[in-house]
Amino acid sequence: MGQNSNMNEFPGDATLPELSFGPENIYETNPDLWKNRCYLPHFDAGEIVQFISMRLYDAVPRHLIDFWKEQLQWPEGAVDPETVIKLTRLIDKYADAGYGHCFFRQPEISQLVESSLLFNDNRAYRLLGWTVMPNHIHFMIILLQNSSLPKTIRALKSYIAHQANKILNRTGEFWQREYYDRYIRSWSHFIYARNYILNNPQKIGYTKKYTQVIALD
């Protein structure tokens, strides 16, 4: 890898791995891989690039999510990905406004998130980038062979919640129950997601101290 020109690119010898993308029509061709849990469907796609979002429990009130679902005429059964994207954009816009306790404004909690993501790099996944926002995080990964996305996310959320609650001297709910996963469909989609991670803090005037993306060269 060449010399990093961006202070928010991975340092050292982190290199961009070979990337595998999901096909455009993966919803139709692989319906058995979609799992509906709570208000979002999840796609257990194996070793392809995935964009993940996790939010604090009070980042977006549940009654707002229910209202948006009603507006989108959310079906009872399977939900097509484009409808999920519309809902997620509404959730992201609200979360970016910085509502709730915003525990990640505390450097010790943001550092905990970073170290937890990095600990699992090359254990459960290849980590391609992350950003820690005041009340949510985004990160991009490639699951390693035999890794399960639900189990990986569950373990990550559990550890961070337990350790963060100890630091904050509190108990109770920490994360929103649901997480969002979006499989990456192409190189251009990967660049879009990478830039989203890189630019999300700047968009709301927040620090980029806890933002890193893998270099492209």
Structure in words:
- Helix content is 37%, strand content 20%.
- It is of the alpha+beta class and 217 residues long.
- The strands form two sheets. A five-stranded antiparallel sheet has the order 6-3-5-4-7, sandwiched between helices. Strands 1-2 form a two-stranded antiparallel sheet.
- A hairpin with a 3-residue loop joins β4 and β5 (136-143).
- α4 runs antiparallel to α5 (149-168).
Low-confidence sequence ranges: 1-5
| Chain-averaged pLDDT | 84
Number of domains: 1
Number of strands: 7
Radius of gyration: 17 Å
The total of helices stands at 6
Q: Beta-strand level of the residues, as a percent range? A: 15-25%
Order of helices and strands: HEEEHHHEEHEHE
Shape: globular
CATH architecture: 2-Layer Sandwich
CATH topology: Alpha-Beta Plaits
In a nutshell, what does this entry contain?
The protein is an alpha+beta fold and 217 residues long.
Name its key features.
217 residues; alpha+beta; Alpha-Beta Plaits; two-stranded antiparallel ribbon; 7 strands; disordered N terminus
What's the helix and strand layout?
Elements: H1 26-29, E1 34-37, E2 40-43, E3 49-56, H2 62-71, H3 81-96, H4 107-119, E4 125-132, E5 136-143, H5 149-168, E6 175-183, H6 187-203, E7 211-213
Helix pairs in contact: 4-5
